[in-house]
Amino acid sequence: MTVSEPELRPYEAELADGAVPAQRRDGVVVGEFPGLDDLDNPHYRDERRWVAGCVARIRSMPRPVTPLHEIALPAQLAGLKLYIKDETVHPTKSHKHRLAEALFLNAFANGWLRSDGPVVEASSGSTAISEAWFCRELGMRFLAVVPAGTAARKKKAISELGGEIKEASGAAISAVARKTAQETNGHFMDQFTYAERAYDWRADHGIAAEVIEAVDPDWFVMGAGTGGTVASVARYARYCDRKVKICVTDPENSAFFPGWRDDDRAATAPGSRIEGIGRPVVEPSFLFPLVNRMIRVPDPASIAAMRVAADRLGVRPGASTGTALYGALKILHGMHERGETGTVVTVLCDPGERYLDTYYDDDWLAQRGIDHTPWVPVIEDFLDHGTWHPPATWTAPPVPATVLWNM
Prior knowledge:
Blueprint (H helix, E strand, L loop, with lengths): L9 H7 L6 E3 L2 E3 L17 H12 L8 E4 L8 E7 L9 H14 L9 E4 L3 H13 L3 E6 L4 H8 L4 E5 L4 H11 L3 E2 L2 H8 L8 H9 L3 E4 L5 H13 L4 E7 L4 H7 L30 E5 L1 H15 L5 H19 L4 E7 L13 H6 L8 H10 L22
Helix pairs in contact: 2-3, 3-4, 3-7, 7-9, 8-9, 11-12
Keywords: Pyridoxal phosphate
Protein name: Cysteine synthase A
Organism: Saccharopolyspora kobensis
């Protein structure tokens, strides 16, 4: 049986990369340790005292319930409510802080981390920043493998937390991260494979419990980068028999939407312009059965919703929040049209200060053919009057000429 690479656990991957399994020769077992058949593990030390200290340090960190803000809706939408979960209050100012904590606890419990080896991740964004923060707190070395050409601002945010940077071509970034971990006796966290497995979705301090126990929503709306957060909410809802359904909002040029629509995990796409969500391939942690609905959101609509939210929330969000907010408003519109009442929750994923030279820069948008202005009144009119009138005509940005490995 052949196991696909993303499903290999670190120790299995190490064996696949060259370790020789035991073989029989003339009835005698031969291999790396001829004549020895009673050994302590020569590859992985049992550093239980160190592991226990690191786990205790993580578990002692404050875990405040992040705020859930109600967004005012017009009188025309009476009976409907919209909330946004503000994840920017975490120490690393992103919902990826929860993911990083889960990945570390999962890796410690599985014996994958070593006191003398680095943590390696393929990321140039919020995940790398959050993992670098945890490594600093735990006194561990962190190495981020980032796509070549990653903005200096992003690399600076990682290095300021003590992280090291290694560049690679976008398509090879995960392979380079895995190889780097093997060469340095480190561990490749591999967020895209382990996110859905690492999240403790039964926990009462997770985002799922915080949202569902607070407002018992009808819909939870969010974009997917790894798919780990939406999987945790969906699982908690099934486990606790709650009504909430999951809608994933996907940006243009992402493989998630066509893959889910066609039930095709081999789907590919050019890759997303919206940082943190959308991928050129269907990642292992994106689980089709847990997603009730998907909405493909035009990039200009994501930027418009982000800009309007910045004016109304008192905090600048990133573009992935705009993608989710657009989908939440579209769901509310459908509920209103059907005469339904209920609650929709979305997430403020990270702060817009990380994107002042990109999504909040009109020149940067123009260079990429993104004109968000026709979509701004769509968002404003719905929030002011409850009317939903997408533009009759708008200019779609050109498809990226090369694959975008947005990580």
